[in-house]
């Protein structure tokens, strides 16, 4: 498509200067850019389908890591006595 309609991550380094010159830096243009960025972020990270095995797996993995970090000194002390 046209260079002005491409997202920043799809613009090549050599085209960056031209892409910036096509941007709208008026207050309405900046507000539109912020709104578009927020909608993209929201769709990717916040408004995701909830549930399923992946969500439960991530929750369990997080709990295991948190539990291990809370008990690290205990594990380290007992492991040292066991082998030495």
Automatic annotation (TrEMBL):
GO function term, MF aspect, one: proton-transporting ATP synthase activity, rotational mechanism
Location (main, coarse): mitochondrion
InterPro entries: F1F0-ATPsyn_F_prd
GO CC aspect terms: mitochondrial membrane; proton-transporting ATP synthase complex
Pfam family, one: WRW
Keywords, comma-separated and alphabetical: ATP synthesis, CF(0), Hydrogen ion transport, Ion transport, Membrane, Mitochondrion, Transmembrane, Transmembrane helix, Transport
Signal peptide (UniProt feature, chain positions): none
Protein name: ATPK synthase
Native source species: Sapayoa aenigma
């Amino acid at each position: 498509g046209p260079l002005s309609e491409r997202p920043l991550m799809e613009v090549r380094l050599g085209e960056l200067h031209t892409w910036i010159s096509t941007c709208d830096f008026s207050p309405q243009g900046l507000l539109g850019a912020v709104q578009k960025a927020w909608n993209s972020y929201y769709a990717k990270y916040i408004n995701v389908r909830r549930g399923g095995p992946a969500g439960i797996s991530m929750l369990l993995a997080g709990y295991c890591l948190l539990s291990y970090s809370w008990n690290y000194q205990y594990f380290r002390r007992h492991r040292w006595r066991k082998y030495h």
